[in-house]
């Protein structure tokens, strides 16, 4: 238990926004979060945030107001939002602030990310040979997983079908057109067994979360959500990561998602089977399937049956990515982790409208995973 | 030169403390953090641990397509007897040959490791 509450959550629009900068999206998200909390920018006592490629978060004070607070830049890939949130939580817990902000944003260009071998500590040969392609990693990992655990291509397609269906129910989503599993499965193959509609695309958006001590949360009234835990982890020995020239160790690879999720559940004093609504990193369909098991929500291989029963749908037994996840919202790297927290806050408050999980959910979970082997998880409660 | 001498070999490192094998050559051990690593030659034979097919031409540069143009190729990880799984381009007549932990043999080390299916 952290003794810290989320008192405000805000998003900018997600998806292509010509003429709107990443920084402007961040400001929009922060102002929305402040209004949600019933606070002014001058009430925020400390801030943490960042983007992967759209500027430094501490420069946002030029638009927000020069209140002189400490504002620390975070650059931690897909865990940027998670790391900013952990820092904000720790600032509250340490007593150095009573109201803190975490913000993440990005505005990526069209098409796949184009990494250079040198930036990853690899010889130039990996680029020449055509191995600096992010999607290969996802294809190799899920292809092996499907053979090992009997997951079918139909189930892969179902994950993306659900993402687009949930996107149609989310007014803020980028992809809001439904797509059938058949259409998804028969689209161009990118890296076997993943077709083009099974992947998320680099996108645009900003997300902001305001946390406060329980005393302040009580004084503010509003609709606070308890942050039972917020955890980030880097990889341990023997994981399988994007652009790895080798997987070291004997036997099956380990997963940083497993380590981070277990730590988050342990710190929260909650078991995965108690969670009512969850967000899992869905860089592509296979990732969502594997993360269900890696984060402790089922056994490896159980996903085939669970999806057959519709378990991950909004009205299922373990609703996953109710806002459409990365597949429907796109992947602005800095923003995604806090977009997930925003969605769980919205669900736990019962304010998710057409995509509201029935039965008044009271426990939620978020999980991001990214290169080069990082994961951030939270457990939330009302 | 004899065929043995001309055969390509991959070079890695073995940790003096814990025996972990790294590829490529490493100064420090990812498993235990010790810094005494011995250079070793890795096995030329292994099995396909996992793979996918690159269906579209990667972005050029950095990708250098073959002179006669891009054709889809397989890429994956080859599990060696040392335990380490090495990323490689996988040569085969038909991608289906790579299924079922197919045995493969090293054919080249540059620009990246390359293995072919053993008939
Ligand atoms: Zn060692």
Question: Can you describe this structure?
Answer:
Chain B: Residues 41-107 form the ChsH2 C-terminal OB-fold domain. Chain B: GO terms for molecular function: DNA binding. Chain B: InterPro entries: ChsH2_C, NA-bd_OB-fold, Thioester_dehydratase-like. Chain B: It comes from Aeromicrobium ginsengisoli. Chain B: Keywords: DNA-binding. The complex is a heterodimer of chains A (382) and B (119). With 382 residues, chain A is an alpha/beta fold. Chain A has a single domain (4-111, 200-381), classed as Thiolase/Chalcone synthase (Peroxisomal Thiolase, Chain A, domain 1). Chain A is built from 13 helices and 12 strands. Chain A has a 9-stranded mixed sheet with strand order 3-2-4-7-1-8-12-11-10, sandwiched between helices. In chain A, strands 5-6 form a two-stranded antiparallel ribbon. In chain A, strand 11 and strand 12 form a beta hairpin. Chain A is globular, with a radius of gyration of 20 Å. The mean pLDDT of chain A is 96. In chain B, the strands form 2 sheets. Chain B has a 5-stranded mixed β-barrel with strand order 4-5-6-8-7. Chain B folds into 2 domains: 1-42; 43-119, OB fold (Dihydrolipoamide Acetyltransferase, E2P). The longest helix of chain B is centred in the N-terminal third of the chain and has 4 residues, at 3-6. With 119 residues, chain B is mainly beta. The mean pLDDT of chain B is 94. Chain B is globular. Chain B is built from 1 helix and 8 strands; from the N terminus they run αββββββββ. Chain B starts with a helix and ends with a strand. The A-B interface holds A 112, 114, 116-117, 123-133, 136, 139-141, 143-144, 147, 188-194, 237-238, 244-251 and B 12, 20-24, 30-31, 49-59, 61-65, 73, 75-77, 83-87, 89, 95, 99, 110-112. Strand 9 (246-247) of chain A pairs antiparallel with strand 6 of chain B. The structure holds zinc ion (ZN). The site of zinc ion has 8 residues of chain B, from loops.
